[in-house]
Write a structure and sequence with these properties.
By secondary structure, the chain is α+β, with helices and mostly antiparallel strands. The protein has one domain: Factor Xa Inhibitor (Irregular), CATH 4.10.410. The protein has 3 helices and 3 strands; from the N terminus they run H-E-E-H-E-H. The protein has a 3-stranded antiparallel sheet with strand order 1-2-3, covered by helices on one side. The protein starts with 7 loop residues before the first helix and ends with a helix. 2% of the residues are buried.
Length: 64
Protein backbone atom coordinates (compact mmCIF):
# COMPACT_ATOMS: atom_id res chain seq x y z
CA UNK A 1 0.00 0.00 0.00
CA UNK A 2 1.42 3.43 -0.89
CA UNK A 3 2.49 5.90 1.74
CA UNK A 4 0.35 8.94 2.48
CA UNK A 5 1.71 12.37 1.71
CA UNK A 6 1.53 15.11 4.32
CA UNK A 7 -0.84 17.91 3.38
CA UNK A 8 1.64 20.80 3.49
CA UNK A 9 -0.94 23.57 3.69
CA UNK A 10 -2.44 21.92 6.77
CA UNK A 11 0.98 21.17 8.28
CA UNK A 12 1.77 24.91 8.27
CA UNK A 13 -1.45 25.73 10.12
CA UNK A 14 -1.60 23.02 12.79
CA UNK A 15 0.82 21.61 15.38
CA UNK A 16 0.77 18.49 17.50
CA UNK A 17 1.45 18.94 21.20
CA UNK A 18 3.26 16.44 23.39
CA UNK A 19 -0.07 15.01 24.47
CA UNK A 20 -1.11 14.51 20.81
CA UNK A 21 -3.61 17.37 20.83
CA UNK A 22 -3.81 19.64 17.79
CA UNK A 23 -3.15 23.36 18.19
CA UNK A 24 -4.09 26.11 15.77
CA UNK A 25 -3.85 29.89 15.44
CA UNK A 26 -6.93 31.99 16.06
CA UNK A 27 -8.83 33.67 13.27
CA UNK A 28 -9.53 37.42 12.83
CA UNK A 29 -5.97 38.62 13.55
CA UNK A 30 -4.69 39.35 10.03
CA UNK A 31 -6.33 42.62 8.97
CA UNK A 32 -8.93 45.23 9.93
CA UNK A 33 -7.22 45.56 13.30
CA UNK A 34 -8.00 49.22 13.98
CA UNK A 35 -11.53 48.58 15.15
CA UNK A 36 -10.55 45.71 17.45
CA UNK A 37 -9.63 46.52 21.02
CA UNK A 38 -6.18 45.96 22.45
CA UNK A 39 -7.49 43.29 24.81
CA UNK A 40 -9.24 41.46 22.00
CA UNK A 41 -6.11 41.44 19.83
CA UNK A 42 -4.01 40.22 22.74
CA UNK A 43 -6.40 37.33 23.25
CA UNK A 44 -6.18 36.44 19.58
CA UNK A 45 -2.43 35.96 19.89
CA UNK A 46 -2.85 32.83 21.98
CA UNK A 47 -3.05 29.45 20.29
CA UNK A 48 -6.21 27.39 20.56
CA UNK A 49 -6.95 23.68 20.42
CA UNK A 50 -8.80 22.11 17.53
CA UNK A 51 -12.23 20.77 18.46
CA UNK A 52 -12.40 17.04 19.13
CA UNK A 53 -14.77 16.47 16.20
CA UNK A 54 -12.13 17.73 13.75
CA UNK A 55 -9.02 16.47 15.53
CA UNK A 56 -9.01 13.02 13.93
CA UNK A 57 -9.28 14.43 10.39
CA UNK A 58 -6.47 16.92 10.92
CA UNK A 59 -4.15 14.35 12.49
CA UNK A 60 -4.70 12.12 9.47
CA UNK A 61 -3.61 14.79 6.97
CA UNK A 62 -0.66 16.24 8.92
CA UNK A 63 0.92 12.98 10.13
CA UNK A 64 3.24 11.10 7.85
Amino acid sequence: MPKHKTNKSAAKRFWLTGGKKVKRTRAFKKHILTKKTRNRKRGLRARAYVHLTQERTIKKIIDN
